[in-house]
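Tutorial, part two.
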Amino acid sequence: MKIVNIGGGLGNQMFKYAFALVLKKTYPNESVFIDSRLCRYMGTHNGYELNRLFDLKIRESSFGNVFRLSKRASCSLFYKMSRNIYIRCLSFFYDHPESSYIEDYQSLGQYNPSYLNDSRSLYYDVSVQAWQYYKSNEQFIRNSFRFKVSLNDSDKIILKQITDSVSVGIHFRGGDYLMSENSSYNVCSVEYYKRAIDLVKKKYQKRRFFVFTNDIDYYNSVKDFLFRDENVVLVRNQGKDSFKDMIFMSKCQCQIIANSSFSWWGAWLNERKDRVIIAPSRWHLMFECKDVCPLDWIRV
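Running the prediction step on this input gives:
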């Protein structure tokens, strides 16, 4: 039996779920589950979104299975009751000698083949933001991430504008990335966007920029510097509709992405044969993240 912890915002949830799909492909006779309890109880970002947006092929684990594999992982149940009780229980079990629990967030953006080569029953609480995990199952994973939520008429107008033009999707991730406690993620400077936009201008004589952002104030502070005399469409989706930005980004001919998992999936799900993906050369200030982007993406 294998259980994958689900956490973070939509992009991180998708990484974990995609990894569970790969585990099931690797071990077809093994029971593979996901555990979204802590994600659901904490309610960070827009909460747990996978079951609302996709037809899930991997089932939620029972609490009994989580408890059998990892006492530490089972502490998530207490978060629903009290955060303080959860922290105390987690502290008690944190160093418990459990060979069935794998935790690793120090190898961010690095491929670790041992995760897939260990046949033991395991509870995975790991970072799996590396393209190599998904290379051999690309179409299967893309098919698993077909959004089941329908677009409205206004969305369809935007989608037509994207598909009918030389569309350049550009994602500005502000918000929590600009906070001091998350400063190690703040690598997508105005200079990065300027260099990426200059590349786009050289490649496409006629282009239309579609801007996606979770921080309109940040975008407003840089737009005049970046987009003088450019055809720009600002796409506004907030809260529970934020997932639509991922759909729209995945349909653009060219994408300038931020160093976020949401942005990553918007690019990776792009199936256009003429697609061009531009990504920051540095993904994180503290970790190398050498495997985070596929080799055909342009690093700037």
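The two ends are 41 Å apart (CA to CA). In part three we will examine how such features are distributed along the chain.
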